[in-house]
Amino acid sequence: ANGADHDPGDHDSTRLHGLPAGLWNRPLVFKVSNSAYSRNKLGVREDLRVKYNQQHYRRVFSDDDSLRALEESSAQPSLLDLVQRWLERTPGLNRTEDCDFQFWEEYKMAVERMLHEEYLLPAERETDPSLKQLKMADYKKQLDAFHSIDNLEVYNSYIEKGERNFSHKSFQGALMIALYRDEPRFSQPFHLLTLLMDTDALLTKWRYNHVLLVQRMLGTKIGTGGSSGYQYLRSTVSDRYKPFVDLFNLSTFLIPRSRIPPLTPKMKRSLSIILRGKDEDEVEKD
Question: Which residue ranges run through the membrane (predicted)?
Fold first, then answer.
């Protein structure tokens, strides 16, 4: 609803009935429940969610139907889980007898050459001390960034901190699809990754608009239910509520087209095939 259609004074009359803030009427109770359900299905990590009134979000609901639906949604594989499983099967990631192209090894060598030629050598050749220091700092910054996706232990530490959601293998798959998106077999997968980012972006925009509406109606008032209102909702407009945040950060690790490792003839043929319900192993044998 448009905030201009609401008079902030209208909300105070609902408080007289003892309704907690955020639960002005029954339809909104459904919306809150549906929001938690949607986050479970999308894959928003529970350990990263801001607590509502310092308690787990499930304790907000008392009716059995809502609780049952929330429990089932959290027990089932989320969209994030399914996308990761799919990405981990990206051709070129796993060593097999039929695959003569190892993407991750080729990518790391390409990055090493790029950092050496475009960052380290210019820094070493710089004669001005201040510029040399700046260029070396830039090289170190780039080196640390790529090291964060190369070293498994470092990569997993970012997952523990909530800055990444994808497994190391699924991240590799997403990066390969992004780099080789012009190959026919990766065209639709890349489009899917784009749609997943659009989903995150639109939901973030929706939450932000909701935050502005609440701020317009309530300001920073504390609801009768003890909710932190605007402050709580504002905390949900962050990367921790974006299950596919890793896809947004892929651009950090894309390399110039001229430095993308060339595919082997066999891998080139494999990626020239657009799968239409055919098993990947069967395609490799054709």
Answer: none
